[in-house]
Amino acid sequence: MIHTFARRTGAAIACVFFLSHGMRAQEPPAGANAPPASPLPSYIKSIEMLPVGVDQPIAPVDHPLYSYADSARIIANGAIWAWGDAGRPAAMAKCWMNRNGTQTVAFSLTSDERVVARGPQNKVWRPEKLQVEPVELPGAPAPDDKDAVRLRQLKDQARRFTAHEFWDPENSRFELRLLVQPVHRYQDVKHKVIDGAVFLLAYDNNPQILLLIEMLKPAERAARWQYLLAQVSSADLHVNLDGKEVWQRGRTPGIIGRPTDFYWHMVTTPETAAP
Fold this sequence. Notes:
Shape: globular
Helix content: 10-25%
Number of domains: 1
Order of helices and strands: HHEEEEEEEEHEEEEEEEEH
Structural class: alpha+beta
Radius of gyration: 23 Å
């Protein structure tokens, strides 16, 4: 009886092994026949993003880079979106649904050129000043030829950054944590970026700061690294590199800012903004 049970068990395991491996053998390679991207939500489709003085719109990345919720700060259906599917994003936004049903799109300028965004309900974002400023990242290794190794290098450099913010109640201090998996990777011929990544510094899972780390390889000099920082929060923000503060942003005026600022909240009503 024991031998019969063993034979049956072995046969069952073999069958499962054969079926699972047989099915895997027939699967297409990664990226082949991939399902179409989910339709963009209406509040993203309704936004026309253009470089200043140019008529050709900048297309949004066809999927959210990151999704989250924050019960402590009463945020639902939160996501990070980006415009520009090639090279460094021209702009990014933290979007969420408010408890009164309105939709917030918190634009953040990440380009070294100004843009204009036209949204629903005659909302227009036209930042007058740039936000990001590339800073050389000292002590980084030479970029590796292998993508997987470069990804590990990017993560190692991102771990050198720490951050905190001051926010209500009573301007309390909150430590931010690095989400070590980048939400976006890119190359940028114009800026000589051979590999770039967008990391998030977050309060719990709620992004507050965008950290962009880039590997550059100009023809006339050796490879080097740089970083850029941008806000996606109205709080008083502080970032340290190797324990020394390197970047700070004060509180956003009136929380939402102004449509001429490089960080601004576009708030639309439920009828127009509903996904």
